[in-house]
Design a protein that fits this description.
Elements lengths: L3 E8 L3 H10 L1 H4 L15 E4 L6 E5 L5 E11 L3 E6 L10 E10 L2 E9 L16 H24 L1 H4 L4
Antiparallel strand pairs: 1-7, 2-3, 3-4, 4-5, 5-6, 6-7
Amino acid sequence: MSSRVLVALRVRASPERAFAAFTGEIGAWWRPSPMFAFTPRDPGVLSFEPGEGGRLIQTLRSGKVFEIGRISCWEPPRRLVFGWRQATFAPDQATEVEVSFEPVGAETRVTVEHRGWDSVPASHVARHGFPDGVFLRRHGEWWQALLEGLNAFMASDAGKDQTW
């Protein structure tokens, strides 16, 4: 059985705009969570290196770069798949995030599936000792808040200033 989080939200944008904002402007709308931090240091700024084989990275204030994961699927404006690891993960512990962008009328349904949490034991610091159901619920709530932040960013003046 695979432990996963699955959340979706309709955003007021085309799939092209939603994909571009998710990947190209992640540093502007992403809100770090102390509970789900990638590294024990202060949170840095996230960014994607576009295309298959590119990376999702966190650049810390010191300039140091932490690789969160590699992009295994880059299909604008429909689909994105990338690896997700925290600094405390062992080499055999990795999760994967799949994001799909589906047109629904004048909106886009952005769906995030974050899977593979069964590779990370409940006793691991990343899971805070929570039982599977509690951890997945909390992680899902965070992803839902992130998607709401993406939607708010695209509706803001800063998000509207971008040309795509």
